[in-house]
Amino acid sequence: MKPALKGFLITAWLSLFAGAAISKELPPADDYAYVFPLSVSGESELFKLDVPVDVYRSVSDPSLRDAGVYNADGQPVPRIFEHPAGAEKEVEEQIMLGAVPLHVDESEQPEQLRLLLQQAGTGINLQLESADAERTVKARPIKAYIVDIRDIDHEFVALVFSWPEQSQGFIGRVTVEHGDNLQHWRRLGSASLANLEYDDTRIMQNRVELSGKTSDYLRITWRNMPDDWRLDSVAGIYNSQGLPANRDSMTLNPTGPDDTQREFTFEAGGYPPVDRINLVLAGENVVVSASIYSRQEENDRWRLAHRGLFYNISRQGESLQSVPASIAVTRASQWRVKLDSGVTNEPVHIQLAWRPDRLFFVAQGSPPFELVAGRARDRLENFPQKNLRGDRSIFRLLRESGDASVATPGSREVRAGPDSLEVSPARSWRVVLLWAGLIGAVLLVGWMVYSLMRDMREDN
After folding, report:
1. Chain segment 223-260, per-residue pLDDT in tens
2. Which long-range contacts (CB under 8 A, 24 or more apart) does 313-316 make?
3. CA angle, 223 then 227 then 229, to 5°
4. The pairing of beta strand 34-39 with beta strand 408-409
5. DSSP labels for 50-114?
6. Which of 164, 258, 271, 416 lies at 20 to 30 Å from 182 by C-alpha?
7. CA-closest candidate to residue 408, choices 40, 21, 22
8. Closest to 271 in 3D by CA, of 60, 50, 37
9. Residue 230, CB half-sphere, CA atoms under 13 Å: how many?
10. For 25-77, what is each residue's pLDDT tens digit?
11. Residues whose CB is less than 8 angstroms from the CB of residue 403 and which lie 6 or more positions away in sequence, other chains included
12. How far apart (Å, rounded) are the C-alpha atoms in residues 324 and 332?
């Protein structure tokens, strides 16, 4: 679409929107419980922001349908929320990497490498080998691995390791570094790796997350591993679709255990779209099997969100915590943990993580803009914010014409206050009168039809 035509369509749509806003009443901004000032910069037609946790704690509707954006003149502006369930999903793939072991003994330096230059035609091939590759090295321990990734275009987000079966369980720490040469190294990531058995359960962790862009070479070192520990393979993990998701998180304290110390309840205070969940266990060498439930409101039925194994294990100075479990996106204000097996002498804490919803709004009218949230009457009025702002085509058109600029939300301020999050009988008379009018109109029409039919029978 040509820019001139696209600009005309956007202007025409906004003009129609202005007329619709006049013809259809929308709640004033002062009717909403809370307000968040929005800071914007630049001459953009479209702005975006990731919803902060306080917004989820300010609405009465879990899907954010009672939230809107107003300009400096108190007029509502077009807005939509993009929920994480509809966003582009991450797709991870892996590629196997070649790892060169570095061996040491009493007479050698910890690291000795040999670079082989081979000329093939007009090109030169650089080959990396251990300096003692031609010797018998089975008796000497491996102190590190070097991985050459110069010919790999992918940007790795993690490494996954495999190793031969060990006679005993272990916990150790692996560190991954990178460098442009084989002398100076910079840290990329570190994590505890483990292979343990508790009762009939096997605990395996073999992944190290990486942060930052990788250079030409990787170096893998470790500590507190078994003396004969070595790697069978190293795989690089990269995202083939979408970008790594940024997640917000919070850790909740229990409101109190039950009498048996086996169940704990938690109040999130809002409805973030949780898709990762974990238990934080106090003490050392705690392993529990737990079921985690959620519900949106006090009177709702508890629904199972996840059942699995959680742990906090220490051995030889290394600690190992269970990794967050993936769950279906769940918007719940209350959570419950039930311990199915295992014992903990301390209260259990729950950790929730989520990809925040993203708000887009049109820069219509004069700034400053503000995000309002929390009006229970919106539900009774069929969510006027959503109904009037639900046209996604204009937002798609604006996003195709250029990237949205970033808006920064300020701290939450009280507007109408928490009372707006509840609908009292006195405040719902408008709805009652509306229904009374509709019922009266139906009765009137019925009476008129009945009278007409009676008169027709009398005429006959």
Report:
1. 988 888 899 999 999 887 665 668 899 999 999 777 77
2. 313/171, 313/194, 313/196, 313/203, 313/284, 313/285, 313/286, 313/287, 314/171, 314/284, 314/285, 315/170, 315/171, 316/171, 316/224
3. 80
4. antiparallel
5. EPPHHHHTT-SSTT-TTEEEE-TTS-EE-EEEE-GGGSPPPEEEEEEE-EEEEE--TTS-S--EE
6. 164
7. 40
8. 60
9. 13
10. 788 999 999 999 999 887 788 899 999 999 999 999 999 999 999 999 999 98
11. none
12. 18
- In angstroms, rounded to a whole number, what is the distance separating the alpha carbons of residues 272 and 331? 6
For 403, the 3-state DSSP assignment is: coil
Q: Tokens 């993203």 appear where?
A: 358
Task: Match 């795989």 to its residue by tokens.
Answer: 235
Q: Residue 118 phi/psi, 5° resolution?
A: -125, 125
Report d(CA 96, CA 225) in Å as an integer. Answer: 23
Amino acid symbol at 204: M
**401 φ, ψ to 5°?**
-85, -10
Q: Both tokens of residue 124?
A: 């030169």
From residue 307, give the alpha-carbon distance in Å to each of 291, 293, 338. Answer: 4, 9, 9
Average pLDDT of the chain is: 81
Which residues contact residue 412 at a Cβ distance below 8 angstroms, ignoring those fewer than 6 apart? 34, 35, 36, 54, 55, 58
Tokens of 283: 């003490």
Question: Tokens for 143?
Answer: 């102190």
Higher pLDDT, 432 or 415: 415
